[in-house]
Amino acid sequence: MTTEVRSLREFRMPDVGEGLTEAEILTWYVKPGDPVTDGQIVCEVETAKAAVELPIPFTGTVEQLFFPAGATVDVGTAIITVAVAGGAPAPAAAAPAPAVQGEPAEAPEPERREVLVGYGPRTGGAQRRARKTTVAVSNGTASHGTAAPAAPAVVVAPVAPAPVAPAPVAPAPVAPAPAAPVALPEQAAGDRPLAKPPVRKLAKDLGVDLRTVVPTGPDGVITREDVHAALAPAPVVAPAPQAPAAAPVVEAVQDDRAATVTGGDVRIPVKGVRKATAQAMVASAFTAPHVTEFVQVDVTRTMKFVRRLKETGELGRDVRVSPLLLVAKALLTAIKRHPEINAQWDEAAQEIVIKGQVNLGIAAATPRGLIVPNIKDAGARTLSGLATALGELVDTARQGRTSPADMQGGTVTITNVGVFGVDTGTPILNPGEAAILAFGAVRDMPWVHKGKVVPRQVTTLALSFDHRLVDGELGSKVLADVAALLERPKRLITWG
Amino acid sequence: MTVKSTARARKKAAPAVPDNLPAGSGAQPELIQLLTPEGERVEHPDYPLTTTPEELRDLYRDLVLVRRFDAEATSLQRQGELGLWASLLGQEAAQVGSGRAMRTGDYAFPTYREHGVAWCRDVDPLNLLGMFRGVNHGGWDPNEKNFHLYTIVIGAQALHATGYAMGITKDGTDDAVIAYFGDGASSQGDVSEAFTFASVYNAPVVFFCQNNQWAISEPTTNQTKIPLYRRASGFGFPGVRVDGNDVLACLAVTRWALDHARSGNGPVLVEAFTYRMGAHTTSDDPTRYRLAEETEAWRAKDPISRLKAHLDREGLADEAFFASVEAKSEELGLRVREGVRSMPDPDPTLIFDHVYAEPHTLVDEERAEYVAYAASFEGGENL
Predict the structure, then answer these.
(1) Contact A118 B341 (CB under 8 A)
(2) Domain hosting residue B153, numbered range
(3) How far is it, in rounded angstroms, from Cα A248 to Cα A255?
(4) What are the b/e assignments for A122-138, b being 16+ CB within 10 Å?
(5) Where's the Lipoyl-binding domain (chain A) (predicted)?
(6) Is B261 in the same domain as B367?
(7) What is the ipTM of this complex?
(8) What's the distance, Cα to Cα, between the start and end of chain B in Å?
């Protein structure tokens, strides 16, 4: 009787689209030690095309996760190993298990032939397979026995991160080598390194062995800079190929993105929502001339109104009521009185587009970063309908499930900076919109009320607008209207 | 629209061609339905259908197994075992209903999503998957199954079907042809040409349009201003809209349409009004262009749960039956997974074998060249 026969199977990042080269791991649903069954969803990944869930093709126990959530992984790279019963090179392994779990009992080759098909992964970058006739010339390796010739080595190469990458000791937030997984195949293969002739000459002149140089050029080509860098003693940046060494330091970063720490500086790759935010903000700030106006307003009555709505539950039992709801309603009412503020500058057509409906954007801080989903046709909603929509929008955003459709087509935005305890700011327009309202913190302040200085609840509102299409007069009227509505919320009825 | 005028229109010639809908009115025309989403059986004067409990149970089994197969295929794609998969989720009833309406001699021309029709034509699911894995080109014999190869070119098969149907007329048999396509393909020139030829030549072909509301990311409103089935009247043949999530209505209407065609009355357009619950293909992310509410609304019209509700309500199936279907489904899942994972790669020279039916000198030469080229690499000739 032998002990239980187990073998490790690795699951590699598949190409879930057509011709994708990489995917970002968003969430792991399993951890080492968890049992999994064939077809069970183990993680969610996001590619250039879609966020999709990946089912594991084995039944067994999770042995190891190679990458933390947030890592971007090349297609074809092993991301998880599962210990499965049977299939190992043990005596009398004729347990009934293999048949049940759907894995044809297979020879225990250390490297199973690539299972990924179709448009599947590029296994070895752009490397060519060695031709028999050229072997002797290029490598000087006389032996090209059938056991381990160059070609299989190339096929195996992308798997290299598996043994190299994170030590099994620290399963949680270990980062993979962020920048240069490409570098590994070159080193592993012992092949002729890729470099252009002048660079080869430079290396020769400087006495640098190209095989020791880390390539940073496209497709793993060694550049002139790489050669110089190889000559300099300690590179300042780029911990790239030394992933194992760099890894332990990295876990300090709590953001789940792969980040690197070098000499106290934290370097976080700019991608995803951060990248989109940056591009949108730069585009907006440098195309639309922004003007920001401010007003302080006594919102005591609005706050009282909010409290009453909460207590009576008259908007519906499960509806959340917040000051933001009243601010939104006030802005929508102001827009009804001044529809020209709900507009867009169409550069291509050289037209100002007054929008037919108000899609009210709410800037939301989410686990994935700043996003601005909007409530479609918010102007047509009742107060209770608006409250419901607002609640759903916030919940969806918090769960990170906001769809791109939810974020498209906004016409005006509110940013609730008050929740962070600040009074106001100069918001940057959401691209394509003409105005954005910042709602600051509500504070108890000494205020002249009915001829006396008394404590009142006061907030600051800021309205940024695109001066190409919104003049100071229009912008001021809108802001003044919002302030007046919040000062006396009854006006929501008389003006609405 | 008024019920009266619809009824009058129906009585004329072919059933249900209400021309009284104002174009672009947005009003939904009558949908032929025999089984409500709640599982209640309703009668329709023009499409009577009698079914035995056993037939209903068979249809239920078909629907469940087809959905299971489809889910396994999606999962296999996510594991890197298939290059691509076009899921039929939500369209099971349209495909099984129409597929089971066919007689043995009838011939189907599918798109690339007709896995349920393939099932009804006894095409081995693994053959379909081999194609999406890239190890065969659709490995079934179309003439054995009377199920043509999957057509990727949008709408092209409508012409193939029409040509085949015209051939049937010349043969003088009473077989009929069914051409599958979608709402997006309805905008293709090929489909219009097929309509024209089929109509003018009185070809025995049923154009079966599964309007699943989305052509990848384009909504049906981008394809047409009138309900799609009304296109037929302009070409001079009847069109009818059927609840595509109602397997019984799809069966009855398609059976009627095929009989209409095989009796020498010319083509019919059937618009099966349904919904693509999943992505266009595994490379698509529908959350980027459509709202979750819409999907949820259609989930309530699910084709399988309404038939199950009917079987339950009428006491036509017991727990043992549902358990046996479940067991069959598991068995199919396992067979599909194992089958795909152990599919051998084809011999690279196979491609030369299918160029000409007879030996051909030039192809032989090219094959020999290729073999020599492949053998020049280290590590074997298996490229």
Answers:
(1) no
(2) 3-17+27-341
(3) 15
(4) ebbbebebbeeeebeee
(5) 8-83
(6) no
(7) 0.71
(8) 64
